Amino acid sequence: MDHKWDASYDVIVVGSGSGGFAAAITAEKKGLKSLIIEKSSKYGGSSALSGGGVWIPNNPVLKEAGLDDSYEKSKDYLDSTVGNRVSDARKVAYIKRGTEMINFMRDNTSQVQFQYVPGYSDYYPERKGGIPRGRSIECPIFDLRKLGKDLENMRINVLPTKGLVINSYEFHKVNMITRTWIGKRTAVKIGMRLIKSRLTGANYSSLGVALIARLRAAHLETNGELWLSTAFVDYVTEGNRVIGIVAEKNGKRIQIEAKYGVILASGGFSCSQEMREKYLPSPTKVEWTSSAPDQTGDIIDVSLGLGAKLDLMDRVWGAPTVIMPDGTPYFLVADRGIPNMICINQVGERFVNEAVPYHQFVDTMYAKDKPEARSSTCWIIVNEVAKQRYIFMTLFPKQPFHQKWLECGFVKKAHTPAELAKQIGVPADKLTATIERFNRFAENGVDEDFHRGDSAYDRYYGDPTLKNPNLLAMDVGPYYALQVVPGDIGTKGGLLTDEYARVVKEDGSYIEGLFATGNCSSSMMGETYPGPGATIGPSMTFGYVAATYLAEQAKK
Ligand SMILES: Cc1cc2nc3c(=O)[nH]c(=O)nc-3n(C[C@H](O)[C@H](O)[C@H](O)COP(=O)(O)OP(=O)(O)OC[C@H]3O[C@@H](n4cnc5c(N)ncnc54)[C@H](O)[C@@H]3O)c2cc1C
Predict the structure, then answer these.
(1) Is the pLDDT of residue 240 over 80?
(2) Do residues 156 and 553 make contact, with C-beta atoms less than 8 angstroms apart?
(3) In 305-402, which residue ranges form alpha helices assigned H by DSSP?
């Protein structure tokens, strides 16, 4: 059949996050002419808003940092965390091809470089193959001036670092600024960086911004094209093969040919309330996601039309979240490592090890959401000593909560647990007993109920000067409480793919010419989250894998 194409490329990549850029850079470097289409007017997706952590076991950056990792250890760890929820072939491909992707980016681009994040533990370091020192890497600081005018088109993250440029590996140290010398030294280093940028006019970035900026800088060095404000709408097919797409550009429908294939990297469906209600556990709200806008799962229904199989549609990358007075979500990570802090359900009881990895915290909120003790909306409580010592909710140690936060009831404040209980509507005797019991655990350094502080992961954000870095008695007021909802940093269900990132059909065959990576595909991490960076790692790896597959096809 003759098609009237408006444009023609070897490869079309849908979405400009970490997966999309990794795919397009690989395609170009391997000789394919590529186009990225991006629905939003900014490139970068959730990847640009992220912490920029990349978790790829046994990769060369870890080796160079002296980490004792191996293929066998990595496989043991994926088996002991992801288990059989995902095929062995995908787990093996992740370990082997992840390393290949990192080497490829380092060897073929001047910008996509990585550094180790020492000490950022695997999320389950005690499981077989787990590493307490961690396997996370991140991009070094990047001067955004190198992007020139193109910077205007980039999504810039709103992580609450108040203009300070902080590497991931520095954050847990500076969090202890009032407690340790290393905390103070790190704060000075970050301050010097700020002064240097002011003196030189540098525009430093770190975390997800540095990742996307580096990927875009590398992409600009290729001949690859990026069309913003261009949304994928549908496929153009011939038999079982995808040969192009229908897109909407500036309000106009166009058809673009993909000679070898289409790589979907369009993120999940966290921004569609309709899809959330259809697929995710209840309660669920679009306002609770920290992901980038435009993640509306546009590829799902049209892919079902091609016979694609979906998986993990009921799962999110869970993130316990506080909704700020202006409605923006704030994702609690380090705040849950603070020792004089607890989280309680609607009957005033602790229900979880507060310091567990965020996805597990959210799973527990849903699992324990019983009518008699609701936990899907819970409370995080700290006392004044915590406020004096640690960074909490973006505020520095000793910095009081903003008056308007107290006035509008966003932060509840009381001098005793019983008074606080009244304000948040939980039984006063229960909350008082809960805090007294917690205080006894803190004195002994052992959380007999939930084992907080047992895992190296818990301790990463804790206070290393304490007997148990995650436990400190909350025996003096005032006490403060903030409401927590089961938020997310994206969804993890989507098109089932194989070890080559090919989209698999219900009958086990695959759709020719169609590939998917990142949050629009069903995660190769199954129902878990093995380590910091376990969403971006696979997104980049399988973007690379798909483009490499297509480059090999093109040679035949
Ligand atoms: C605050 C925060 C911190 C995080 N920290 C980390 C971390 O440190 N490490 C980690 O691994 N993960 C982290 N995450 C999660 C991570 O950001 C995402 O899981 C990951 O970036 C997803 O990458 P992706 O390539 O699938 O898609 P994205 O980066 O989300 O990109 C998808 C792109 O596709 C575009 N798109 C959508 N629909 C269409 C369409 N129809 N046509 C064209 N384009 C379309 C979107 O606009 C978007 O730009 C974090 C997330 C948040 C919010």
Answers:
(1) yes
(2) no
(3) 358-367, 384-389
Terminal C-alpha separation, the chain: 23
| Number of other residues whose CB lies within 10 A of the CB of residue 410 | 18
Give the mutation target among 226, 489, 525 for probing the ligand 1 site: most ligand atoms within 8 A of CB: 489
**How many CA atoms lie within 13 Å of 104's alpha carbon, on the beta-carbon side?**
23
Q: Which residues pair with 381 in a beta bridge?
A: 342, 481
Beta carbons within 8 Å of 28's beta carbon, 6+ residues apart: 34, 219, 222, 223, 224
Q: Per the structure block, which two tokens stand in for 405?
A: 């936060």
How many Å apart are CA 536 and CA 517, to the nearest integer?
Answer: 10
**366 in helix, strand or coil?**
helix
Confidence of residue 163 (pLDDT cuts 50, 70, 90): low
Written as one string, the DSSP assignment of 235-263 is EEEETTEEEEEEEEETTEEEEEEEEEEEE
Angle between helices 18-29 and 207-220 (to 10 degrees): 30
| Cα distances (Å, whole numbers) of residue 411 to 358, 385, 405, 499 | 22, 16, 6, 47
Using a CB cutoff of 8 Å and minimum separation of 24, what contacts does 229-233 make? Answer: 229/38, 229/39, 229/40, 229/41, 230/37, 230/38, 230/39, 231/37, 231/39, 231/298, 232/14, 232/37, 232/39, 232/264, 232/266, 232/298, 232/299, 233/298, 233/302
Burial class (CB in 10 A: 0-12, 13-18, 19+), 8: middle
Question: What pLDDT, on the 0 to 100 scale, is given for residue 61?
Answer: 97
498 CA to centre of ligand 1 in angstroms: 21
Question: Which of 138, 98, 133 shows the shortest CA–CA distance to 116?
Answer: 138
Digit-coded pLDDT (tens) for 440-499: 999 999 999 999 999 999 999 999 999 999 999 999 999 999 999 999 999 999 999 999
pTM (two decimals)? 0.97
Q: Where are the beta strands (DSSP E) in 306-443?
A: 310-311, 316-323, 329-331, 341-344, 378-383, 412-414
Of 154, 495, 536, the residue with max ligand 1 atoms within 8 A of its CB, to mutate for a pocket test, comes to 536
Q: How far is the CA of 155 from the centre of ligand 1 (A)?
A: 11
Specify the higher pLDDT residue, 3 or 58: 58
For strands 494-495 and 310-311, give the pairing: antiparallel
Asked if 71 and 56 count as a contact pair (C-beta separation under 8 A), the reply is no
pLDDT at 156: 87
Closest C-alpha to ligand 1, atom 26: 518
3-class DSSP state of 289: strand
Helix, strand, coil distribution of the chain in percent, nearest 5:
35, 20, 40
Going from the Cα of 485 to the center of ligand 1, the distance in angstroms, rounded, reads 21
